[in-house]
Amino acid sequence: MTTHKDDKDIGTTGHSWDGIEELNNPLPRWWLWTLYGCIVWAVVYTILYPAWPMVSGATSGVLGWSTRGAVAEEIAAVDEAQSGLRAELEATDLNTLAANEPLHRFAVQAGGSLFANNCAQCHGAGAAGAKGYPNLLDDDWLWGGQIEQVAYTIRHGIRNEDDPDARYSQMPAFGEILTRPEIDTLVAHVQSLSSGADPLAGAGGEMFSANCVACHGEDAKGNRDMGAPNLTDAIWLYGSDTATLTTTISKARFGVMPAWGLRLDEAEVRALAAYVHQLGGGEATTEE
Amino acid sequence: MGHKAAELYGNRTMTNPTQSLYAARLPIFPRRVSGYFRRLKWALMLVTLGIYYLTPWLRWERGPDMPDQAVLIDLANRRFYFFMIEIWPHEFYFVAGMLVMAGLALFLFTAALGRVWCGYACPQTVWTDLFILVERWIEGDRNARVRLHEAPWSLHKWRLRISKWVVWLIIGLLTGGAWVFYFTDAPTLLRDLASFSAPPVAYMTIAILTATTFVFGGFMREQVCIYMCPWPRIQAAMMDEDTLTVAYRDWRGEPRGKGLRRRAAAEAAEASIRAAGPQIGPRSPVIPMPGRPAMPSAPVLTEHKGDCIDCNACVNVCPMGIDIRDGQQMACITCALCIDACDEVMEKTGQPRGLIDYIALSDAPKEAAGDQPKSVWRHVLRARNLIYAGLWSGIGIALIFALFLRPDVEMTVAPIRNPTHVVLADGTIRNAYDVRVRNKQGTEQIFHVSLDHADLIITVEGSTSDKIAIPADSQGQARVYVDAPAGSHLATHARSDLRLWVTDQETGERAAVDTNFTGKDDE
Ligand code: SF4
Ligand code: SF4
């Protein structure tokens, strides 16, 4: 085998392993300048931005940039961007909100995250409620399901001591008024109401009309002004089994909800009302 | 091993340790050339640059609420428009398929024709070609440019240099400018750019692409191909002995020769280049390939039998500054200009053309022995290429089928599972579903939601009907309630199958999704 004349022209780097020698093909000079450029860039970068680890934290860089600051800036920018919508939401008539498509969408989205932060603890992430905490997805409302009524409930809460305007009602603890057999009769009577029994018929009916109609009405359909539940429907806040109903009637229930108007601003309360109102049970506003 | 290497490569000398480890770029002054491949390359340049610069300005009517740009990559709205085709993000497999096809096409072309992409279609090659054209137009052909390069700086030199750079910058600007038009409505953006009200990212993109075009096409040129681009390495691995590539018929050309005096001068010049030290790129020494007959180390002085007259035309036209007669080299982009240059010379000397030509390496020994080489078609239509072509067209056909089989109405249904069902005041059991419908048309469409159970009541949140209105070319979501009356079959069974339908009110096109209904199972 012969040798190409050119090969001899290439020197070697002097490195040789098992007779394999490394040809000296020099790197282009601009490559070197690129490397120097990168070094300069790196040095400048470490001066401008947080870089060197110190005992507690890192050098902060002369630009004062930080990831926390960047997040705070982004949040501020979003707040700024939303301020117009918030102001509009505060000023708008809730009854016509749904007609304003972009504003309604904003309110529902905002309400959704507010709900997850503030309401889901009691009413559940899916708003299905729990025993003693109303299910907000159904079409049964203790204090009314029109959007303004929902907003009032959220704003002032129920039976709390912080807000004088909180919705308030209290059922007597009939355990102190009626005898145990009377309560048993009443429990059986109330249980029969869901299947369409006449609220005023029979012995139970007599007791019902003597003790309950003031709040729950002669038709047992409740009274939203007093937060008195409808006893003829399929929905039971605490349950309809005998033991639960016996406890409910003897001891009375006293569910409390905070006044969110004291913690959230008006736009947030309205956003929550819009969100809750579109969960499936919201009622159309009727003229008073 | 040691003695074998020495046998192969001779005894090397170690490079002088004081010699720099880095080499400055040697400027290259490609000479003008004309011929078949040059004409082909002009035509291809016209086509590729034409496509690049003009495509964003083509219009395509799609409907009042849709962009009318024929080719548009709408990143903000996550749509890709290509004439009548619109691709949504969930149809990204089209893009993936096209990328796979592009890869296979590269395999195919490289296996068949070597670095044909590099030589003819690569933007680096096309723009460099254009920049060299401008250079020649302003500063003159090779000899004038060499003189200008060596001349001291004068008003004349400055004037020529600056006018060249200005034209390059304008080309760079147009190149960067054309790029951004692909991403938004071109006429609007042009107006915004001119009135300085376009988004900063547009100006930044233009600035960066102007700078890269200017530097890569004007100053880096072959350095990009040799040191920055991965293709030369990859493509070298994809070629085989049947690949047609630009090569020198050394068995025909050697021993090269010219008049004795001229050769002595040429050798002196050669020696000075060699003495300047080794480098890849301009006048690169070839990497020896074992098994390949080496070239005679020195021209035979007395006899002159080869066709090569050692006029260096092939070297002078080469945009990479290499000598194809040294054999296959990594720096060669197979632009074929040396073929044209040599053909010209062969015509003058009255020899047959093709001293430098597209040749398959497997043919070289046959031709050298005086046998007939394989025909071009037998090289191109070999199994490997046919498999690549088959795969390529298979994917292409599949994509076209997928394109026409795409449904016009698409729906997804997500049953709400928290809670699984809601009991209404009258005992009705309600299930809720998040229904997403895609309206692929250019106008707002009304969709009806329906079920195949007659006794169920269906309502859409926020409306009193079963209709969902979805704006043009978008996806809409609606909460759909399905109510089963108390005591009905669905209300009293834990889980029942349910099929939800959406129907386009206008076209009647429908889509269905199977889901299920959760009843009250505690009774
Ligand atoms: S050697 Fe020939 S084909 Fe290769 S880059 Fe140079 S001119 Fe083009
Ligand atoms: S152009 Fe042809 S004849 Fe001239 S030096 Fe190159 S190979 Fe030889």
UniProtKB/TrEMBL annotation, chain B:
Gene Ontology MF term list: 4 iron, 4 sulfur cluster binding; metal ion binding
Annotated 4Fe-4S ferredoxin-type domain residues: 297-327
List, alphabetically, the Gene3D superfamilies matched.
Answer: Immunoglobulins
GO CC field? plasma membrane
Q: Which UniProt keywords apply?
A: 4Fe-4S, Electron transport, Iron, Iron-sulfur, Membrane, Metal-binding, Transmembrane, Transmembrane helix, Transport
Write out the transmembrane intervals.
Answer: 40-58, 92-113, 165-182, 202-220, 386-405
Keyword Transmembrane helix included in the entry's annotation: yes
Q: Which Pfam families match?
A: Fer4_18 (PF13746), Fer4_5 (PF12801), FixG_C (PF11614)
Q: Does the keyword Nucleus apply?
A: no
PANTHER family, per the entry: FERREDOXIN-TYPE PROTEIN NAPH
Descriptive protein name:
4Fe-4S ferredoxin-type domain-containing protein
Protein species of origin:
Puniceibacterium antarcticum
